TrEMBL record, chain A:
This is Cu-processing system ATP-binding protein. It comes from the Bacteria. SUPFAM superfamilies: P-loop containing nucleoside triphosphate hydrolases. Keywords: ATP-binding, Nucleotide-binding, Transport. It comes from Parapedobacter koreensis. Pfam families: ABC_tran. The keyword ATP-binding applies.
From TrEMBL, chain B:
The chain crosses the membrane at residues 12-34, 46-67, 88-114, 120-141, 153-176, 228-247. GO terms for cellular component: plasma membrane. It comes from the Bacteria. It comes from Parapedobacter koreensis. Keywords: Membrane, Transmembrane, Transmembrane helix. GO terms for molecular function: ABC-type transporter activity. This is Cu-processing system permease protein.
Length: 242, 255
């Protein structure tokens, strides 16, 4: 569904993305993991057209996304830190997004909105909200318009355990509907029972892109966190010998 | 596009700074007009306050607002929207909010106390300056990523337009006082919208008689329809050009 070819991005001298080529297919739930500063968020932003790469291209359903904006109708994005106009209420933010997406009220997916109890706080101003509640608003907006692609950047950071479970249930439900879901997270235990594929990024390059089963089989680990730890250990060993 | 403008304006009009700004302008205008005995004098006193405060507040408030909305702009960019649409909406929102605050704060007292040609000119110029400095703020913030440096740049720009430029003009005036530079002065004043506004307003009040030969040249230029048309065009250019540069840069910017 999304094809990335030879994507490179430099911020000054720093190579944030270094010749990245990936193919992301529908029906998969992909974990994008890697150490801090490995280019995960930059990759996501490139897919969303928020940064302009120096070279390479990204196609969405076969169409190049450069200078395009309509394809974003099919993407739900939950940012790492959602910040909204301070004087607006939750209701106004939701209305604005509904206005932008122009989707009939009946087609909206209000499941998370009700599950998170946001319907009772429509009049609260954004500046009075806690980090977790803002995160709930972001999650709600990402899922609301039934997008074919969901991009979730650290979705569970700042959410309480109950809301985390609600969100994970929602992700599982969406996965059943043949959607492409990309999640970045440092909480690997959250990802374990969700993802089908793993992309591991390091220094702006994808080190590997494998299915979770294959990864577990190769490393002989039963959990994602163990598998990743093992991969990182062998990788360092190889770096050391080189 | 209208939708985003609507929400930006709704957000701005509820901001406390805008309300305080409106109130301060209103208090200043009413007190100046009640202290001065004639409307003309009132306009001149108010003129100096307006030319100082309006650019400063428009520039600084817009800069701070834009930096504080960085994440919100990011959110909009991740939505199915054109980047030009987003940037134009933000400009229109800020421009409407700032000029509305000015029109309420200064416009209403002017209509009540000094509904003269000079009063109307003061209102027009104040509104134009609001737009111009919102546009300059957009250009400054789009070029500078760091908030502290961006606000610093805004303050420097304001210092340049409000003080430094006049110092340079005075310096040139004294250096070349032996030459016929009056026509040059007209051109030079176009390089600073604050100066252009000051001249426009002063010419409507009858103090221009005291400005000597330069005043007569100014009157000869700004007093004609052609001169007014050129001045209006220059003020429009001052609004459009910084905005146009900023939108060109914003379309290629990494967020």
């Amino acid at each position: 569904m999304i094809t990335i070819q030879h994507l490179s991005k430099k911020f000054g001298k720093l190579h944030v993305l270094d010749d990245v080529s990936l193919t992301l297919e529908g029906g998969q739930c992909i974990a994008l993991i890697g150490p801090n500063g490995s280019g995960k968020t930059t990759l996501i932003k490139a897919i969303l057209g928020m940064i302009v790469p120096q070279s390479g291209n990204i196609t969405f359903k076969g169409k190049d996304i450069a200078h395009e904006w309509r394809y974003r109708n099919q993407i739900g994005y939950m940012p790492q830190m959602g910040r909204y106009p301070e004087n607006m209420t939750i209701g106004q933010v939701l209305n604005m997004m509904k206005d932008i997406r122009k989707m009939p009220e009946s087609a909206l997916d209000n499941h998370l909105f009700i599950a998170f109890g946001l319907d009772g706080m429509l009049d609260k101003r954004m500046r009075t909200l806690s980090g977790g509640t803002r995160q709930k608003v972001s999650a709600c907006l990402a899922f609301m318009f039934n997008p074919e692609v969901l991009i979730l950047d650290e979705p569970t950071a700042g959410l309480d355990p109950l809301s985390t479970e609600l969100l994970k249930d929602k992700i599982r439900a969406e996965k059943q509907q043949d959607k492409l879901i990309v999640i970045t997270s440092h909480v690997l235990s959250d990802l374990d029972d969700l993802v089908t594929e793993v992309i591991y990024m390091q220094d702006g390059k994808p080190l590997f892109h494998k299915s979770l089963q294959a990864l577990k089989a190769e490393t002989g680990a039963d959990r994602l966190s163990k598998a990743i730890a093992q991969v990182m250990a062998t990788h360092e060993l190889m770096e050391g010998t080189l | 596009m209208n939708k985003i403008i609507k929400y930006v304006i709704a957000d701005l009009l509820r901001s406390r700074t805008i309300m305080v700004y409106t109130a301060v302008l209103a208090v200043l205008s009413v007190s100046v007009f009640s202290m001065e005995d004639s409307a003309g004098k009132g306009v001149v006193s108010l003129l100096n306050i307006v030319l100082f405060v309006v650019p400063l507040v428009s520039l600084l408030f817009s800069t701070v607002y834009l930096y504080n909305s960085a994440e919100f702009i990011e959110l909009l960019v991740s939505q199915p929207l054109r980047r030009d649409t987003i940037w134009i909406s933000i400009f229109v929102g800020l421009a409407v909010a700032m000029s509305l605050a000015f029109m309420v704060g200064v416009g209403i007292p002017v209509v009540l106390y000094a509904a003269t040609a000079s009063g109307v000119m003061l209102m027009l110029c104040g509104a134009a300056l609001s737009l111009i400095f919102v546009s300059v703020a957009l250009w400054a913030t789009v070029r500078v990523r760091d908030k502290a440096r961006g606000i610093g740049l805004s303050i420097l720009l304001w210092l340049y337009f409000a003080l430094l430029f006049d110092a340079v003009v005075l310096f040139l005036l004294f250096q070349f006082s032996d030459y016929p530079i009056e026509n040059g002065m007209v051109a030079l004043s176009m390089l600073n919208p604050i100066d252009t506004s000051r001249i426009l307003i002063l010419l409507q009040v009858d103090v221009s008689a005291m400005m000597g030969y330069t005043g007569a040249i100014f009157r000869k230029f700004f007093g004609t329809d052609g001169g007014m048309a050129i001045t209006a065009t220059i003020l429009v250019l001052w609004t459009v050009l910084p905005f146009w540069f900023s939108i060109r840069f914003f379309k290629r910017k990494d967020l």
